[in-house]
Amino acid sequence: IHQLRNSSKYVSYKDIKALMADLKAVYAAVDEAAALDALDTFSERWDKKYPKIAPSWRENWSNLSTYFKYPQEVRRLIYTTNAIEGFNRQLRKVTKAKSVFPTDDSLLKMLYLAMMDITKKWTGRRQDWSIIHAQLAVFFADRMPD
């Protein structure tokens, strides 16, 4: 998502919809090879007008292409970080109110209690969570508890 935001930063308002649609073909591709083909197509169409976008994607491809090793369901989950960013924002709000903590344990306790309050409000469930969980268990078997 940060690469997309960086790519659209200097794009003219009249071009943004078409350009983002062409970039969507890159990040929504079925696999890495299809994504690279879509990036070549994007480059052919937009390099004259916006010469820095496609090279930026190519420079960062080693990091961006990691996304394609996961199945489609997992990609949808990691595509956006809104839930994580919102969670972190709420934790920062709690710690900002009190800027000095007497010990590390006091900070950890405060964060733990804030986390418990934050997670109480989470009511939504993903319909495809069981599929995603099974796929994550394959990729991260050593990190997931039984």
In DSSP terms (H or I, runs of 4 or more residues), the helix count works out at 9
Summarize the helix and strand pattern as letters: HHHHHHHHH
Domain module tally: 2
Q: CA-to-CA gap between the ends? A: 32 Å
Helix content class: 55-70%
Overall outline? extended
Number of strands: 0
Going by helix content, strand content and strand pairing, the class is mainly alpha
What are the segments in which pLDDT stays under 50 over at least 5 consecutive residues? none
Biggest sheet character: none
Could you tell me the radius of gyration in angstroms? 20 Å
Strand content: under 5%
Oligomerization category of the chains in this entry = single chain
Mean pLDDT: 88
Q: Keyphrases for this structure?
A:
single chain, 146 residues, mainly alpha, 0% strand
What do these coordinates show?
The chain is an all-alpha fold and 146 residues long. It has 2 domains: 68 residues; 58 residues. Helices cover 66% and strands 0% of the residues. The chain contains 9 helices and no strands. Helix 2 packs antiparallel against helix 3 and helix 7 crosses helix 8. The longest helix has 17 residues. 7% of the residues are buried. The model has no long low-confidence stretch (mean pLDDT 88).
Short description:
The chain is mainly alpha-helical.
Strand and helix map with partners:
Elements: H1 2-8, H2 16-27, H3 32-46, H4 53-59, H5 61-64, H6 72-79, H7 82-97, H8 104-120, H9 129-139
Helix pairs in contact: 2-3, 7-8
